[in-house]
Specification:
161 residues, alpha+beta, Thiol Ester Dehydrase, Chain A, 3 helices, 19% helix, 33% strand
Length: 161
Protein backbone atom coordinates (compact mmCIF):
# COMPACT_ATOMS: atom_id res chain seq x y z
CA UNK A 1 0.00 0.00 0.00
CA UNK A 2 1.55 3.21 -1.13
CA UNK A 3 0.06 5.99 0.99
CA UNK A 4 -1.85 4.19 3.74
CA UNK A 5 -1.03 1.29 5.97
CA UNK A 6 -3.90 -1.09 6.63
CA UNK A 7 -4.12 -1.96 10.30
CA UNK A 8 -6.54 -4.34 11.96
CA UNK A 9 -8.59 -2.29 14.38
CA UNK A 10 -10.88 -3.36 17.21
CA UNK A 11 -13.91 -1.43 15.99
CA UNK A 12 -16.37 -2.75 18.54
CA UNK A 13 -15.09 -0.53 21.37
CA UNK A 14 -16.30 2.78 19.98
CA UNK A 15 -19.69 4.19 20.87
CA UNK A 16 -19.72 6.45 17.77
CA UNK A 17 -19.61 3.61 15.27
CA UNK A 18 -22.86 2.47 13.68
CA UNK A 19 -21.92 -0.53 11.56
CA UNK A 20 -24.62 -2.04 9.34
CA UNK A 21 -23.70 -5.56 10.50
CA UNK A 22 -21.97 -6.87 13.62
CA UNK A 23 -18.29 -7.79 13.81
CA UNK A 24 -16.83 -6.18 10.69
CA UNK A 25 -13.31 -6.88 9.54
CA UNK A 26 -11.74 -3.40 9.78
CA UNK A 27 -8.63 -1.66 8.53
CA UNK A 28 -7.63 1.86 9.47
CA UNK A 29 -6.49 4.33 6.83
CA UNK A 30 -5.48 7.97 7.06
CA UNK A 31 -6.12 10.33 4.14
CA UNK A 32 -2.78 11.54 2.76
CA UNK A 33 -2.05 14.49 0.45
CA UNK A 34 -1.89 12.23 -2.63
CA UNK A 35 -5.44 11.01 -1.84
CA UNK A 36 -6.91 14.54 -2.09
CA UNK A 37 -8.33 15.84 -5.36
CA UNK A 38 -8.95 19.36 -6.70
CA UNK A 39 -12.16 19.57 -4.65
CA UNK A 40 -10.06 19.25 -1.48
CA UNK A 41 -11.50 15.89 -0.43
CA UNK A 42 -10.54 12.25 -0.90
CA UNK A 43 -10.88 11.28 -4.55
CA UNK A 44 -13.46 8.59 -5.36
CA UNK A 45 -10.80 6.30 -6.86
CA UNK A 46 -8.99 6.26 -3.51
CA UNK A 47 -12.05 4.90 -1.74
CA UNK A 48 -12.18 2.07 -4.29
CA UNK A 49 -8.51 1.30 -3.59
CA UNK A 50 -9.21 1.22 0.16
CA UNK A 51 -12.13 -1.19 -0.36
CA UNK A 52 -9.81 -3.48 -2.32
CA UNK A 53 -7.08 -3.26 0.33
CA UNK A 54 -9.61 -4.11 3.05
CA UNK A 55 -10.92 -7.10 1.08
CA UNK A 56 -7.37 -8.37 0.49
CA UNK A 57 -6.47 -8.07 4.19
CA UNK A 58 -9.73 -9.79 5.15
CA UNK A 59 -8.93 -12.62 2.72
CA UNK A 60 -5.51 -13.03 4.32
CA UNK A 61 -7.13 -13.15 7.77
CA UNK A 62 -9.25 -16.16 6.74
CA UNK A 63 -6.31 -18.02 5.22
CA UNK A 64 -6.51 -16.88 1.60
CA UNK A 65 -3.56 -14.78 0.49
CA UNK A 66 -4.72 -13.33 -2.85
CA UNK A 67 -1.17 -13.37 -4.26
CA UNK A 68 -0.69 -17.05 -3.40
CA UNK A 69 -4.18 -17.92 -4.69
CA UNK A 70 -3.36 -16.30 -8.02
CA UNK A 71 -0.15 -18.35 -8.21
CA UNK A 72 -2.38 -21.42 -7.79
CA UNK A 73 -4.43 -20.18 -10.74
CA UNK A 74 -7.54 -18.76 -9.05
CA UNK A 75 -8.83 -15.37 -8.00
CA UNK A 76 -11.96 -13.47 -7.07
CA UNK A 77 -12.56 -10.67 -9.57
CA UNK A 78 -15.04 -7.85 -9.09
CA UNK A 79 -18.02 -8.42 -11.39
CA UNK A 80 -20.21 -5.57 -10.22
CA UNK A 81 -19.80 -2.72 -7.77
CA UNK A 82 -22.25 -0.30 -6.25
CA UNK A 83 -20.95 2.56 -4.11
CA UNK A 84 -23.07 5.19 -2.40
CA UNK A 85 -21.04 8.21 -1.30
CA UNK A 86 -22.63 9.83 1.73
CA UNK A 87 -20.03 12.33 2.97
CA UNK A 88 -16.57 13.58 2.12
CA UNK A 89 -13.31 12.75 3.86
CA UNK A 90 -10.46 15.23 4.00
CA UNK A 91 -6.70 15.42 4.47
CA UNK A 92 -5.51 13.62 7.62
CA UNK A 93 -8.93 12.11 8.40
CA UNK A 94 -8.61 8.72 10.08
CA UNK A 95 -11.12 6.34 8.54
CA UNK A 96 -12.18 2.80 9.31
CA UNK A 97 -12.92 0.59 6.33
CA UNK A 98 -15.18 -2.27 7.42
CA UNK A 99 -16.33 -5.23 5.39
CA UNK A 100 -18.38 -8.38 5.63
CA UNK A 101 -18.63 -11.38 3.33
CA UNK A 102 -22.41 -11.46 3.08
CA UNK A 103 -22.89 -14.16 0.44
CA UNK A 104 -20.95 -17.07 -0.99
CA UNK A 105 -22.74 -19.53 -3.24
CA UNK A 106 -19.84 -21.98 -2.90
CA UNK A 107 -19.67 -22.35 -6.66
CA UNK A 108 -18.86 -19.15 -8.53
CA UNK A 109 -19.97 -15.95 -6.78
CA UNK A 110 -19.51 -14.08 -3.52
CA UNK A 111 -20.59 -10.68 -2.21
CA UNK A 112 -18.91 -8.30 0.22
CA UNK A 113 -20.52 -5.28 1.81
CA UNK A 114 -18.45 -2.33 3.00
CA UNK A 115 -18.71 0.83 5.03
CA UNK A 116 -16.16 3.55 5.49
CA UNK A 117 -16.67 5.46 8.73
CA UNK A 118 -14.83 8.42 10.27
CA UNK A 119 -14.58 7.33 13.94
CA UNK A 120 -13.92 10.86 15.24
CA UNK A 121 -17.55 11.81 14.64
CA UNK A 122 -19.17 8.52 13.56
CA UNK A 123 -20.01 9.84 10.09
CA UNK A 124 -20.56 7.16 7.46
CA UNK A 125 -18.53 8.21 4.41
CA UNK A 126 -19.80 5.50 2.09
CA UNK A 127 -21.54 2.15 1.74
CA UNK A 128 -20.64 -0.30 -0.98
CA UNK A 129 -21.57 -3.73 -2.27
CA UNK A 130 -19.13 -5.63 -4.47
CA UNK A 131 -20.05 -8.84 -6.25
CA UNK A 132 -17.17 -11.14 -7.10
CA UNK A 133 -16.81 -14.08 -9.44
CA UNK A 134 -14.16 -16.77 -9.19
CA UNK A 135 -11.88 -16.75 -12.23
CA UNK A 136 -9.19 -18.91 -13.72
CA UNK A 137 -6.16 -16.59 -13.76
CA UNK A 138 -4.71 -18.11 -16.94
CA UNK A 139 -7.87 -17.74 -19.03
CA UNK A 140 -9.57 -14.88 -17.20
CA UNK A 141 -12.82 -16.82 -17.45
CA UNK A 142 -15.21 -17.71 -14.63
CA UNK A 143 -14.59 -21.08 -13.01
CA UNK A 144 -15.77 -23.18 -10.08
CA UNK A 145 -14.37 -22.06 -6.72
CA UNK A 146 -11.57 -24.20 -5.33
CA UNK A 147 -12.29 -25.76 -1.93
CA UNK A 148 -10.10 -23.12 -0.26
CA UNK A 149 -12.44 -20.34 -1.44
CA UNK A 150 -15.63 -22.31 -0.86
CA UNK A 151 -14.66 -23.21 2.72
CA UNK A 152 -12.90 -20.02 3.83
CA UNK A 153 -15.10 -17.35 2.25
CA UNK A 154 -18.05 -17.98 4.52
CA UNK A 155 -20.78 -15.47 5.22
CA UNK A 156 -19.94 -13.23 8.16
CA UNK A 157 -23.57 -12.22 8.73
CA UNK A 158 -27.05 -13.67 8.82
CA UNK A 159 -29.14 -10.53 8.39
CA UNK A 160 -28.76 -6.75 8.73
CA UNK A 161 -29.61 -4.87 11.93
Amino acid sequence: MNTNEAIKTDSNNSENINWDFPNPFVVKVVAQSLDIDSYQHVNNSVYVRWLDECARENSKSVGIDPDIASELGFGMAVRDSHITYLAAAHLHDELWVGNWMTKNDGRLRATRQFQIIRPADGVIILRATLDYVCINIETGRPCKMPALFKNNYTSMVDSPK
